[in-house]
Amino acid sequence: MAGPGTTALRVAAMAAVGALAAACGGGSGSGAGATGSAAPALDGRGDITFVTGKDTSNNMQKLVAEWNSGHPGEQVRIVELPESADAQRQQMVQNAQVKSTAYTVLNLDVVWTPEFAANRWVVELPRDQFDLDNFLKPAVQTAEYRDKLYAVPVYSDGGLLYYRKDLLAKAGVAPPKTWDELTAACQKVKALPEAANAGCYAGQFEKYEGLTVNFDEAVHSAGGTIVDDSGKPAVDTPQAKAGLDRLVQGFKAGVIPQKAITYKEEEGRRAFQAGELVFQRQWPYQWALANKTDGSSTVAGKFDVAPLPGAAGPGVSSLGGHNFAISAFAEHKATALDFIKFFTTEQAERSNLLATSQAPTRTKLYDDPELLKQFPYLPTLKASILGAKPRPKAVRYGDVTTAIQEAAYAAISGTKDSAAALKELQTQLGGLLK
Ligand code: GLC
Q: Which ligand 1 atom is the nearest neighbour of the CA of 318?
């Protein structure tokens, strides 16, 4: 399933990892402290909390139980936050604003690093205690702010096009590389009696962080950008409009079913698993769950994944993922640091991939023959991550994402013309990204 350009991306990845190794002065074990990083010492040992979004696989519980059995005086208690990224962020921000000691290790979405670092809600981490040269470079960059490390990438995320390989094969169509191909392929599939009622395509279109992701992807996949190279917003462009219009038209023409406007990741997953969708934009975690043979999925073994489609060729993913950081207000930071190390060993990442199909952040696992046998899409996923575009890096990220969500939602729900929505968004982002 290696997508076009995978070899080139792999070469780029190797070069990137090499560059990182050079920048890190040789990585862990090579003269700690001699690399210029003077992160303050992290002291204190004892019980801590680990604050995370909903654990859809129960694997976090398993890893925490493993840690707890080996660390009697340093027990970790999981604090589980809601499913949506925005709701998680809100609780973590509120906790930090009152300088609460209740949260120790924070499972941060990759887009929150600038906000949490600039406000000093999380502490700088000692770079030389992590072998970051063995991690995917784009993932490491999401954990940095002004050249300092504030978190460690635990799992990455790249968008994938899930498709029903059984139905496509029966209709005699190949996985689409462009939006037009997707629409044409879907028409053929829907001529099959068993697919007559299926929706063609869905992503995440509820008004929350997932919509920011899907909007960013649509814009980048149409050749546009959200911010230009100098960091200025650039959404009032024909390319950005073409990207947004593809979603607007998708809803209007019924290619995207109306109810998909209420989908976050989990609602979409349930629809895909119920056999209600031919194509779907989704993260890798769905692979394991939709392949379950315990009766929870009707599509186990019947789907595959391909690169996201774009306007004139393959599309561009928005870079997702999660990093662990330590709250500035927490006690027992030495325990917290060890816990992060425990969660990011090769062994822990392997176990997490096997249990959850989440994207590892350690490069090596993408080329592991045994893992490739079980997860044949790993090269497609690696290409998605290495070719992904980050969402805007902003200290006021909460306001930035709200502005994007409102503009995109107004357009896809038909309450605002896409050109007007983008014009307003351009003005708003101009104020926020100064
Ligand atoms: C996934 C991604 C994260 C993104 C979120 C949006 O959790 O890893 O980066 O913000 O989805 O819903």
A: 9
Grouping H, G, I as helix, E, B as strand and the rest as coil, residue 146 is coil
> How much is the pLDDT for 311?
97
**Domain-wise residue ranges, the chain:** 6-157+319-386, 160-317+393-432
Assign 11 to helix, strand or coil.
helix
CB 106 within 8 A of CB 51: yes
pLDDT (tens digit, 9 = 90+) per residue, 167-176? 999 999 999 9
CATH architecture of residue range(s) 6-157+319-386: 3-Layer(aba) Sandwich (3.40)
Instruction: Give the Cα separation of 367 and 355 in Å (integer).
Output: 18
- Mean local confidence (pLDDT), 20-28: 36
> In the CATH scheme, what architecture does the domain 160-317+393-432 have?
3-Layer(aba) Sandwich (3.40)
Closest-CA residue, ligand 1 atom 9, reads: 320
Average pLDDT, the chain: 92
Mapped to the 3 state alphabet, what secondary structure does 201-270 carry?
A: EECCCCCCHHHHHHHHHHHHHCCCCCECCCCCECCCCHHHHHHHHHHHHHHHHCCCCHHHHHCCHHHHHH
Ligand 1 centroid – CA 109 distance (Å): 7
Give the model's pLDDT for residue 39: 81
Nearest CA to ligand 1 atom 5: 210
Cα–Cα distance between 277 and 285 in angstroms, integer?
A: 17
Q: What is the pLDDT of residues 260-274, one digit of tens each?
A: 999 999 999 999 999
| pLDDT over threshold 80, residue 33 | no
What pLDDT is stored for residue 12 in this prediction?
42
User: Would you place residue 56 in the very low, low, confident or very high pLDDT band (cuts 50, 70, 90)?
Assistant: confident
Which 8-state DSSP code applies to residue 318? B
CA-based nearest residue to 159, from 247, 263, 43, 281: 281
Q: Whose CA is nearest to atom 12 of ligand 1?
A: 210
CA distance 56 to 58: 6
Comparing 16-20, 154-158, 206-210, which segment has the lowest mean pLDDT?
16-20
